[in-house]
Structures are given as C-alpha cells and as structure tokens.
Amino acid sequence: MSTWAVVVAAGAGERLGGDRPKAFAALAGRPLLAESIERLDASDWIEAIVVAAPTGWEEPTILLAEELAAGKVAAVVTGGATRAESVRAALAEVPREALVAIVHDAARPLVTEDVIGRVLAPLAEGFDGVVPCVALSDTVKRVERGVVVETVDRSDLVAVQTPQAFVCDVLRRAYGGDLAGATDCAALVERLGGRVAVVPGDPRLVKVTSATDLALVESWLG
Ligand code: C5P
Description:
This protein is α/β, with parallel strands linked by helices and 222 residues long. Helix content is 28%, strand content 26%. A hairpin with a 2-residue loop joins strand 8 (140-144) and strand 9 (147-152).
C-alpha cells in the first residue's frame, strides 16, 4: 500500500511563547519539527511526506528537510488558519495514487515506528480510519461558568493522539466538506459516517503546548 504522511506544523504555538512558531521551538538544539520529519522519513511504512509549514516559514522548512537529508519530503505547503485547513492544504499535494494517508502533529515529536504500524494495521480490516488513544487518568467534569454541573463517566472515554491513519479517498472526501469544529482528522471522517478504530497510543506522544512539555519531551530524548 502506498502510504503518504502529512505533518501539520503551521500552528503559532502562542502558549509556548518565544519568537518563532512552535514547530521551530528548540528541542535538544534542533527545531521541534526536525524530530517528526526525521522519524517519518526513516519509517519503512512511509513513502513520502508533505509538511504544512507556518506562513513565512516555508523556506526554513525546506532547508530543514535538506539538512536532515529527508528525501521523502515531497512538498512543503503553507498552512492554514486552523489545523484542519492546514491538513486540507497538505492533502492537495498527496497524489491520487496514494492509498493511505497518515496525518501527524509536529507538536508530538516522539512518533515511533511501533505506533505507525499500529495505526496502519486496522485499515487492512476495512476500517476507514484509525486513531491512537490513551486512557484518561484524571476525573472528568463538565463545568459551566466556573461551577461543576456533572462528573462524567470516563469508563468509555479516551484521549486521542496522532499519527492517525486513513484510507486516502475517505480522508479527501472528509476534507471536501465543512471543516468547522474539527480538532482532529478522525472527527471529519466520523461525520461522514466512516468507521474509525482505536489502537493503543503512546504516553510519550504528548502534544507540546508549554515549556514544561518541551522540557519533558527533551528529557525523554535521552
Ligand atoms: O494548536 P495545536 O497544538 O493543537 O495544533 C496541533 C497541530 O496542528 C500542531 O502540530 C500545529 O502545528 C498544527 N496546526 C497547523 N495549522 C494551524 C494550527 C495548528 O498545522 N493553523
């Protein structure tokens, strides 16, 4: 199966502060984005990669891919105003022949070959999409205007990560419609009535949003 990866890296990362977009925040002396590009480029599962870069950071992204000798990076596109718009822009560069698309957040640097293999496997069983998940360990409450209105039963709730894998045609159809309110790709596939499987994620696939997350991920890099 020909599998293309989309890396969305166009977020501003305002919570991280600094003078550059999150994808270019320093992680062990390199841009955060380097980690995802290098790992996806080295993956036996992946044929080619499209990166959605922050506006104005297209050239540094191309240079980064060159420095990493990441020959699978086939295109760098300008990201959109939302994650979903960035995915849509990147998908436009994925050729019709691609059967499978994996979408990954650059903000989750520690993507592994194991988790890529796990999200790909259920596609062969007829699923439209597959998401890696982790159990919720905290109690979850619904809150209105600072007051708890409900404690939610968490037994059938999971937190969802990336990389997420999809039958490419289904993902394209999902991105052909309204993108409003979609915080991940699977949400749009679900709206179409697509079947989405869950597989175990990885606690180290945390999404870097704060300086503390960055330090934590850096410590895991060893
Ligand atoms: O903002 P958040 O951290 O939830 O974004 C998740 C991923 O989506 C990040 O890798 C970020 O770079 C990407 N993103 C994007 N374009 C946007 C917003 C977020 O590519 N407009």
